[in-house]
Amino acid sequence: MRATDSHPRRYYHSKIACSAVAIVLTFAFNGGSAAAAPISTLFNTGVDDNGKPLPDGTIGDAHYSLLSAPQGSTSQIVVLDDYSKEPLSFYSGEPQDNLSTWILPNQQTLNDGVNGEYEYRTTFTLSGFDPATAQIVGMTSSDNYVAEIDLNGVPIGSGYSSPPLNTNQFAAGYLPFSISEGFLPGINTIDFWVTNTPNPPFDGSATGLRVEMTGTASVPEPATFVLAAMSVLILLFGIGRRKRLAIMPIIAVIAVAVQPSQSVATTIIVPGQANPWLAGTPDGTMGGNGFDTVPAESPIAVSGLMIFGGDVLTFSVSGIVSHGDDDPTGHGPDGDLNDILRRDSGAENGIADLRAPIDALIGVFLDNSAPNSLSAPPSLDFASQAARDFLTLSPGLRQPFYIGDGLTSLGLVQQIIAPAGATRLFLGDMDGHQWSNNTGEFIVNLPEPSMRALVSVGVISSLLALRLRTHVDSIAARS
């Protein structure tokens, strides 16, 4: 008889216990075993594969097709981006950003579109994603109006409220929409039904569509399966075939039965006096037009959480901040949406300028370098609701970004992706100058990135199981 078989039942059960520890720990601290990622095949109207606007007059849109149109209309699409020409010169209601462009039927005379219903379709894939976790938020404008939005041929219902009949939507601005159910594995379609109404005394009138949207869905975290596999291998290595067959159902039950728990959040208090443009600078550094100094008005460095490039961060924020005596009531973390501003002095101390609502919670990533020894990068702009309604955002180093309450206007969780090289995150609030007279504070809950928490716990649990296994082998060998 082999030495390891001198107490076969005790040895067998000890191996089960060792690997059960690793499997339970790996799955219990997984935090959901999935991470949300952008749906990369989802595009705005009139952009190329990199999301950049197509040149004015481009024929065709690789991501949208005119699936149906009234009799007498062409099904060919033209991209327009010149607001000095008709019909875009009439489309003054929506922000003229560089995230999308208008697409129209390519009539010989663009102002003479045929009246009736137009169906524009875009296609995207959820291959590799869990369709049950997919969500899309966006906004649309059109001439005359978007009457209906369908996902896979089914109206999205309460996710979109169509405007009144005969509305000139292009003059009223964008209308928001959201989709959180009805997704399919693999290929999905979204249809935008545009109604073009008569424009007396003319027989026809211009028509077109503009869409801006983003989406996310969960993908399995490879570390989940790798670490679970490590735990299983610890169990299966060295035991006989019959015992392997007997133990596999137990492994499956453990993996499924354990409920995931959420990672512990780091809670940070951000006072209204926290000036992000003093981040990472030495004592005595001045900012805020000479009113603020380090460390009195320094932003708050996130502690208790190591920052790495590629981390996916989420925020839960509450509290009120006021920017001075002329603002006695203050504002929540989204800031004053009626007061969008840039800093009076622009970029400062190597940190880029920013356009965002005053009093809003903002952040900035740094590496280990002193920012005031470097040139400032380009600034970000969060003036529009569309810009603030991102689902994922990838700011650069020394590039302040809008956080707000951590949710879109429709209540969806937003994700911030740390840039390559990031080692530090600073939090403060938005102001034009002089943070020193601000009052109030924000309370920020910042969970540890789920992937890093999973890797840490999984590795530790697997090593623990391996240590226990070694100990058991040693005992069995001496028996």
Question: What features would you describe in this structure?
Answer:
A 5-stranded antiparallel beta sheet has the order 2-5-10-7-8, with no helix packed on it. Strands 1-11-6-9 form a 4-stranded antiparallel beta sheet. The chain has a 4-stranded antiparallel beta sheet with strand order 15-25-20-23, with no helix packed on it. By secondary structure, the chain is an alpha+beta fold. The protein starts with 7 loop residues before the first helix and ends with a helix. The radius of gyration is 28 Å and the shape is globular. It has 6 helices and 26 strands. A hairpin with a 4-residue loop joins strand 13 and strand 14. Helix 1 packs antiparallel against helix 6 and helix 3 packs parallel to helix 6.
Features:
19% helix; alpha+beta; disordered N terminus; 4-stranded antiparallel sheet; 479 residues; 30% strand; 5-stranded antiparallel sheet
Gyration radius, in Å:
28 Å
Which descriptor suits the 3D outline?
globular
Count of strand segments: 26
Give the averaged pLDDT, no decimals: 80
Which regions have little confidence, pLDDT < 50, spanning 5+ residues?
1-5, 26-33, 254-264, 453-457
Strand count, sense and barrel status of the largest sheet are: 5 strands, antiparallel
The first-to-last residue Cα distance is: 12 Å
Overall SS class: alpha+beta
What percent strand? 25-35%
Widest β-sheet, arrangement of strands:
2-5-10-7-8
Helix percentage range: 10-25%
Question: What is the number of helical segments per DSSP (H or I, 4+ residues)?
Answer: 6
